[in-house]
Amino acid sequence: MNFKDLQYSISKLTTQVQSQVARNNPLQNQDTRSLNYWLFQERNELATLRTKAYQQLETSKAFMDWVNDESVKYEQDKEYRIKDVGKALCSLFNKQVELEQCYADEHRLYRRIIKLIRQKEQERLDREERRRAIEDRINHLKKTNSNLDRIQEFEKELATMQLIDDTAGFKKTMLKEAFYLKLNALQEYAEKLTLLAKFGKDIADGFEHPRDRIDIQVMEAMLSIDGWHSERRPTLLLFDENDDNDDAISLASTDIDGQLPVSSGSSGVNQSNTT
């Protein structure tokens, strides 16, 4: 087992242990336990997406190394166009890495919306705790015949707290936004990947039926994928694209950082700076 395999195995075991701790931790608030565990698993999924993109990039590099070796062995065989076809396929595989990275980026934004829901839920729990404290205080003051002005102040605060509880409405809106974002991204990823596979099969035909200007086929594939357009249900939230506060640590983060291509971003997601 090489170092990277060992590192991956250790990281995977660590993730499994952390998952069990997140599920069974008796110290966490029981009211948000399932939400916290959902967010934890979404973090793991995001890390897996990033690791997958990195692994695909490494696989493409290994494939291209073999193509170069093979082209040297059969340099005189003009019918075996391994270098031209292999290079073209490798370009498509690298494009696949870019698509996976774009999907991972949008999954990160989707998870951030869920974190907003958790934040709102925590605010609701804090208000509930404050409400119970006020009710206990009012009951105590009434029993001791204390100043009625103080009781009225507490009752006014209690009424105000009941009026501002819009947690359910907020959750409905945010859940719709979150899943629009996730499913828009999934649709784009799937349909672009379908285009990539279609062009890839046409290029792979070149192994047995050599064609001229394979580079033109690659260019057509890239233009079709980049020019893809489909109706996407709009989302309303804006995020700062420079804010990387997603706390999702990849299983191979030390290897991945700086090696994945910078994704161009989705054409249908709002990533403007927040105000």
Care to describe what's here?
This protein is mainly alpha-helical. It has a domain at 10-21 and 30-117 and 174-227: Substrate Binding Domain Of Dnak, Chain:A, Domain 2, CATH 1.20.1270. It has seven helices and no strands. The protein has helices spanning 3-24, 33-73, 82-143, 148-163, 167-204, 214-226, 253-256. Helix 3 runs antiparallel to helix 5 and helix 5 packs antiparallel against helix 6. The longest helix is centred in the middle third of the chain and has 62 residues, at 82-143. The radius of gyration is 27 Å and the shape is rod-shaped.
What does this entry show, briefly?
The chain has seven helices and no strands. It is mainly alpha-helical and 275 residues long.
Write the layout of secondary structure elements.
Layout: H1 3-24, H2 33-73, H3 82-143, H4 148-163, H5 167-204, H6 214-226, H7 253-256
Might you state the CATH topology name of one domain?
Answer: Substrate Binding Domain Of Dnak, Chain:A, Domain 2
**Count of extended strands:** 0
| Inertia-based shape | rod-shaped
- Whole-angstrom Rg: 27 Å
Give helix and strand order, one letter per element, not per position.
HHHHHHH
Q: What's the helical proportion of residues?
A: over 70%
- In round numbers, the mean pLDDT is 78
Level-2 CATH architecture of one domain: Up-down Bundle
For the largest beta-sheet, the strand count, sense and barrel status come to: none
